[in-house]
Design goal:
Blueprint lengths: L8 E2 H7 L13 E2 L1 E3 L9 E5 L11 H6 L4 E4 L1 H7 L7 E3 L3 H12 L12 E6 L4 H14 L4 E4 L3 E4 L2 E4 L7 H13 L4 E5 L2 H5 L8 E6 L7 H4 L2 H9 L7 E7 L3 H9 L4 E5 L18 E9 L2 E8 L4 E6 L5 H15 L4 H11 L11 E4 L3 E5 L4 H10 L7 E5 L9 H12 L2 E4 L9 H19 L4 E4 L3 H11 L5 E5 L6 E4 L2 E4 L2 H11 L13
Parallel strand pairs: 3-4, 4-5, 5-6, 7-11, 7-12, 8-11, 12-13, 13-14, 14-15, 19-23, 20-21, 20-23, 21-22
Antiparallel strand pairs: 1-2, 8-9, 9-10, 15-16, 16-17, 18-19, 24-25
Helix pairs in contact: 4-6, 5-11, 13-14, 14-15, 16-17
This protein binds ligand UAG and adenosine-5'-triphosphate (ATP).
Length: about 525
């Protein structure tokens, strides 16, 4: 994707605009055209922000950045020491550069400028599960409304017909502001974007103000970063403040959502989709929400339902993807677009004419074959796995599930995922995900411990197998399947690389599943009857 047209700005003026007047001793600062925190992404004229990392400091890459054309370095005291006299460009020192780069990138990339004829309406989606799907749904609905759209998320970044694969769910703030500049330049009028908790923790959306921020749910994940669910919630809640968004749309199916709706300091629209789902505190959701899902009916592999307002106004919605949770994602997406001011009759027309919530979301409940129903999904935490596995059982058919757990991430979820798999599948095949630098066998053992304990303690009939490598596990699942069964490969979704001790091995669950189905002589029949 080509960068937007550079717009030179005096670095001293940009710093002053974010409340950092340059003190004496910094020297004459140059004119700059961009900012980045990655030496490998430096374009001539950039400021290189040398940030402290978990194990190394970006100052170590400043030489490389200057060689690539960086005209100034922004860093902290440690970075200054590490640089010594080794860089030939001005160095600006601030106590916490990570907190500065978002607002600074906004200024440098023209986010405050009036010249562009309007910034895109921005939709941000956060929550443990459903961000990618909801972001695609918002995008598809905006397209159905005739808007030109952009999208930023786990799978890809799209700006006006151009798309590139993503490295992170939410890019670092310089890239976010640079993409917004490109979208303004291309006349894109609405963009939807995933906002991960890492993004909020590390300031990746600093300087961004969302027109509408949406919340899906909060369940156990990322506790390696956040420590406790309270902390995890607090980080997510930071998006729903006047500094970061204008309006909030909150699913109140869980207790965290209800708490968020009560505490957000911006106008909130609440959406309720599932009265039976209890929250983290075990309580039952209240009956009242601004928009409530009613009259749910099966529609192909998905569902159709009504979205009813408090005063009885109704919208008819269809969500074509399997999985009852996609009702929540579709309802949230529809209300987010309403919250941006789209009239209800326009929305209804777009829903009826274009069926936007049947859009395929790569690796999310993606149907690879119809018989046996063969699905690739991205569920990689206990809640997503539970909801996914519970959604795919067909009357009289078995569920054959394949998944593992990621290395060097939240270890506490491994046995929980194993137990969920044992409860909701007839055959559970535990295999490898991305082990990163961990021993695959140790990870599998932790998942298996949870599965075996559940089988023993709860008297479950699930057959638990351990098969690796992953391609063999997928093959085994298909070999065991007969018509009527559902094979579900969970955890990696759209991913095409498996990272093993620093080496990326080519692995795409969708490709492996298709090959296994062909090898075992299956061809597509009807998958009618998937329960959700
Ligand atoms: C925990 C985490 O988020 N770490 C991120 C963080 O790493 P870090 O601070 O340790 O940085 P580092 O890689 O050691 O490098 C230090 C500094 O030197 C710079 N550097 C490094 C190498 C180089 O050649 N040149 C260079 O300039 C880096 O840009 C960085 O500023 O800053 C890096 C630079 O942007 C990120 O790449 C890195 O994301 C890592 C790869 C990552 O895996 N992050 C995941 C966990 C993440 O953020 N995931 C969420 C989604 C989670 C979910 O919902 O599932 C996401 O939004 O993607
Ligand atoms: N609303 C939801 N509630 C619970 N689980 C969901 C929901 N939506 C999707 N899922 C499950 O979670 C998986 C990931 O969905 P999706 O990619 O949309 O969420 P995400 O929040 O972007 O996840 P990640 O941050 O891990 O990429 C899906 O493959 C599905 O199994």
């Amino acid at each position: 994707m080509r960068p937007h047209e550079p717009r030179p700005i005096d670095l001293a003026a940009a710093l002053a605009a974010v409340g950092l007047p340059v003190g004496p001793g910094t020297g004459l600062l140059p004119t700059v055209t961009g900012i980045t925190l990655d030496s490998r992404a430096v374009l001539p004229g950039d400021v290189y922000a040398a940030l402290p990392g978990a194990t190394r400091h970006g100052a170590g890459f400043a030489g490389q950045a200057v060689l690539a054309g960086a005209v100034a370095v922004l860093t902290d005291g440690v970075g200054r020491e590490l640089l010594g006299d080794g860089v030939a460009v001005p160095v600006v020192v601030v106590p916490d550069p990570r907190r500065v780069i978002g607002p600074l990138a906004r200024v440098i990339f023209g986010g405050d400028s009036e010249d562009d004829g309007g910034a895109p309406a921005l939709f941000g989606v956060t929550g443990t599960n459903g961000k990618t799907t909801t972001t695609y749904f918002v995008n598809a609905l905006l397209e159905a409304l005739g808007r030109s759209t952009g999208l930023i998320g786990t799978i890809e970044i799209r700006a006006g017909g151009d798309a590139i694969p993503s490295a992170l769910t939410t890019p670092e703030s310089p890239q976010v502001h640079s993409l917004l500049a490109l979208m303004r330049e291309r006349g894109i009028d609405a963009a939807s974007m995933e906002v991960s908790s890492h993004a909020l923790e590390f300031g990746r959306v600093d300087g961004v103000v969302f027109d509408v921020a949406g919340f899906t749910n909060l369940t156990q994940d990322h506790l390696d970063l956040h420590g406790t669910m309270e902390e995890y919630f607090a980080v997510k809640a930071a998006l729903f403040t006047a500094e970061r968004c204008r309006t909030a749309v909150v699913l109140i199916d869980d207790a965290w959502g209800r708490r968020l709706a009560e505490t957000a300091d911006v106008p909130v629209l609440t959406v309720r989709t599932d009265g039976s789902r209890s929250g983290g505190d075990g309580s039952v959701p209240p009956a009242e929400a601004d928009w409530t899902v009613t009259d749910v009916e099966r529609s192909g592999l998905g569902h159709s339902f009504a979205l009813a307002a408090r005063d009885g106004r109704r919208l008819r919605v269809r969500s074509g993807l399997p999985g009852s949770f996609n009702i929540s994602n579709a309802a949230l997406a529809a209300v987010m677009v309403l919250a941006a001011g789209v009239p209800e009759h326009d929305l209804q027309h777009a829903l009826d004419a274009h069926d936007p919530f049947t859009t395929e979301v790569p690796g999310r409940m993606q149907l690879i074959a119809e018989e046996p129903a063969s699905i690739v999904d991205f569920a990689h935490n206990p809640d997503a796995l539970e909801r996914t596995l519970a959604s795919v059982r067909r009357p009289g058919g078995r569920v054959i599930a394949v998944f593992g757990a990621t290395g060097q991430r939240d270890e506490s979820k491994r046995p929980v995922m194993g137990a969920v798999g044992a409860r909701l599948s007839d055959v559970l095949i535990i295999t490898d995900d991305d082990p990163h630098d961990e021993d695959e066998a140790v990870i599998r053992r932790a998942v298996r411990a949870g599965a075996d304990a559940a089988v023993t303690e709860e008297g479950l009939a699930c057959e638990v197998l351990e098969v690796f490598p992953r391609a063999d596990a997928i093959d085994r699942a298909v070999a065991l399947a007969t018509a009527g069964d559902t094979v579900i490969i969970a955890g990696r979704g759209h991913e095409v690389w498996q990272e093993v001790k620093g080496i990326n091995l080519s692995l795409d669950d969708r490709v492996e599943l298709r090959s296994a189905l062909t090898r075992h002589g299956f061809s597509g029949l009807s998958a009618a009857g998937i329960e959700s």
